[in-house]
Design a protein that fits this description.
With about 140 residues, the protein is α+β, with helices and mostly antiparallel strands. The protein has 2 helices and 5 strands, in the order H-E-E-E-H-E-E. The N and C termini lie far apart (about 105 Å). Strands 1-2-3-5-4 form a 5-stranded mixed barrel. Strand 1 and strand 2 form a beta hairpin.
């Protein structure tokens, strides 16, 4: 008789342990999901939120629309004050807004002042290839 009672108690304990394990597993999965979502949101905000806003002047000598999977607007500026065109005297930038890109096309080969936002790291693939995102351009006289 005691063996049946022991078996029933043992079976009941196993069932309780299974229920507790399911609850613990469910809570752990929910916690991991919430942490994953918060981490993804934080990383996205970090990559998209600008570190600063600046200006750069020079001669605009290249505008292009390039990329394999994500086509982006890119450009190069020859920095004013440097006589020879070298890699140190050029500044690469990206343009997110197509209207800004179209407004800059008449300025190719002319001195311009560019207003840009600097991101903490290289932009996300659909934003551009550099961490410098130009949002406004003015011709210099």
């Amino acid at each position: 008789m005691s063996t049946n009672f022991d078996r029933e108690r043992f079976s009941a304990r196993i069932d309780e342990a299974k229920i507790k394990a399911r609850r613990l597993f469910r809570r752990l999965m929910i916690l991991l999901l919430v942490l994953g979502i918060l981490s993804a949101i934080g990383y996205y905000v970090y990559r998209v939120y600008p570190k600063g806003q600046n200006e750069q002047t020079g001669t605009l000598f290249k505008l292009s629309y390039e990329g394999y999977l994500f086509k982006t607007h890119e450009g190069q500026l020859h920095i004013i004050g440097s006589a020879v065109l070298t890699t140190q005297s050029t500044w690469d930038f990206s343009i997110k807004d197509e209207s800004v890109y179209k407004s800059m096309q008449p300025y190719v080969g002319k001195p311009v002042k560019l207003y840009y936002e600097e991101l903490p790291e290289t932009a996300l693939p659909w934003q551009g290839k550099t961490k410098f995102i130009v949002y406004k351009a003015e011709p210099l006289n």
